[in-house]
């Protein structure tokens, strides 16, 4: 009878300990996935937000140089090669845009970026310097104002893209904080399981066996 009770007691202890160990294993798997998600989240912040913000800044600088050339801001500047210079800046901008397109774009980002690209490739694709200047009438102010308006539209697209980086960055950081808080909860859960496991093993190893006892 005593041997039968002892055997049942061992089986119960074995089952309880096995369940607790399985819970620890499951918790470790979940925590491992959580840390993987956190790592992915911070990589996304860098690759798709911080790097993209540098793209936007680079594009904005080149767009500013184009506007200076169109507006003839420097009266002492030699404008004989201005079309080639504008074209060079536009090619450089499109190269950055290509890198931008390879990042993880939201639908809104894709819309603004496509609109910006259209302005650069079509609206600011100046074929002849005579559209900007002629010896007889000087700077073609009406046409320059049209180009300035297109550049202003392009800047609005860049501003909208920059604002999206801030919004998406905040969203990703909030997601990372949630994952970190969840990991802290799992860590507390693990401590609780370990305490229960220690108690169970203590009762099994050190609690005296009573003949009429029905549980651990």
Explain what you see.
Keywords: Membrane, Transmembrane, Transmembrane helix. The chain crosses the membrane at residues 185-206. It comes from Algoriphagus confluentis. This is Chemotaxis methyl-accepting receptor HlyB-like 4HB MCP domain-containing protein. Pfam families: 4HB_MCP_1. By secondary structure, the chain is mainly alpha-helical. The chain has one domain (10-206): f41 fragment of flagellin, N-terminal domain. The protein contains four helices and two strands. A two-stranded antiparallel sheet has the order 1-2. A hairpin with a 3-residue loop joins strand 1 (133-134) and strand 2. Helix 1 (2-71) runs antiparallel to helix 2, helix 1 (2-71) runs antiparallel to helix 4 (141-206) and helix 3 (107-123) runs antiparallel to helix 4. The longest helix has 70 residues, at 2-71. The radius of gyration is 34 Å and the shape is rod-shaped. The two termini are 16 Å apart. 11% of the residues are buried. The mean pLDDT is 80.
Can you tag this structure with a few keywords?
216 residues, mainly alpha, f41 fragment of flagellin, N-terminal domain, two-stranded antiparallel ribbon, 4 helices, 2% strand, transmembrane helix, Chemotaxis methyl-accepting receptor HlyB-like 4HB MCP domain-containing protein, membrane, HlyB_4HB_MCP
CATH fold label: f41 fragment of flagellin, N-terminal domain
Q: What is the number of beta strands?
A: 2
Number of domains: 1
Q: Please report the number of helical segments.
A: 4
Biggest β-sheet description: 2 strands, antiparallel
Mean pLDDT: 80
**What fraction of the residues are assigned to beta strands by DSSP?**
under 5%
Low-confidence stretches: none
Order of helices and strands: HHHEEH
Identify the overall geometry: rod-shaped
